[in-house]
Design brief:
With 123 residues, the protein is mainly β. The protein is built from no helices and eleven strands.
């Protein structure tokens, strides 16, 4: 079992920035950030693997940056130029399973999930 704990969410005005963190209890090969709005499916935001290959959703490319600190088993998501449509619950996910990079933002590819942290962007 892998425990994941997110932090760093909050409220910010449009154009602002937030940095999310996800502390993992142990190393896993692939980590990702997902987000979800009530009544909608969970959406993949960004993912990174053990070789530091990254995948981003088109909606966040150029604004969000995913990174990780292997020594601390911590995943980060730097969110810049935030928009009201970025408002959602953000979840950290992890897996040791292999997959093609194009599938990195598929929720079914992850078996470990955090509890989530709320991000609210006001206009």
């Amino acid at each position: 079992q892998v425990q994941l704990m997110e932090s760093g969410g909050g409220s910010v005005q449009a154009g602002g920035s937030l940095r999310l963190s996800c502390a993992a209890s142990t190393y896993t090969y692939r980590l990702a950030w997902f987000r979800q709005i009530p009544g909608k499916e969970r959406e993949g935001v960004a993912a990174i693997d053990g070789s530091s290959r990254k995948q981003y959703a088109d909606s966040v490319k150029g604004r969000f940056i995913i990174s990780k600190d292997n020594a601390k088993n911590t995943l980060y998501l730097q969110m810049n130029s935030l928009k009201p449509e970025d408002t959602a619950m953000y979840y950290c996910a992890a897996t040791s399973q292999s997959a093609v990079v194009l599938a990195y933002l598929t929720a079914s590819g992850y078996e470990f999930w955090g509890q989530g942290t709320q991000v609210t962007v006001s206009s």
